[in-house]
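Appendix B, example 12.
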Amino acid sequence: MRARLAITTAGIECELREVVLRDKPAEMVRISPKATVPVLQLTDDTVIDESLEIMHWSLAQHDPLGWLNPELESLSAALDLIRSADTDFKYHLDRYKYPDRFTAAHATEHRDKAEQFIQIIEQRLAATPMLLGSHGCIADYAILPFVRQFANTDRDWFAATPYTHTQKWLSDFVASDMFLSVMKKYAQWHAGGEAALFPAIEDAPGRPSPQQ
């Protein structure tokens, strides 16, 4: 989701091939042997297969909303916050959401550990509407998809928590045109089939760049 958010924001048009991970196409594995999504192949055949790297690449092409320029702190501070989300928070989120996939994982224990990061987010959002100021930056949109997963794992529990600022931050995001545009459903791609164009031009806030 965060790769698609950045591509949409940057106004970059690309060909999208929707894959199902239990039915990975050989073409995907060939260009990215790690065989995870997302995978972005540029017109010069460069392959970027980490979502945060795709965000950086996209915003380096065009950053009309200033995601790489946080209002109150540095880009380095934003990246440090993302790093915390991608390591400790994501580790516990996976074990909270999918306890059956991990040996000796106790969902509530990992929820409690992940909640420590939510407390950090809540403190920030109590002071400013977004994580590093009044407008969103790369930290917001790199972290929001994971917080959404956390909230959706037990919606009743999350709704009953005192994290009202985080709840509003998340609810505003899922109600936004940007979120709705990247959540559009696409048919599974098969070898020889046509790719879909992503995003729709009207969904992108910036001017479209050359096709990638």
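Residues 203-212 have pLDDT under 50 and may be disordered. Strands lie at 14-16, 40-41, 47-48, 196-198.
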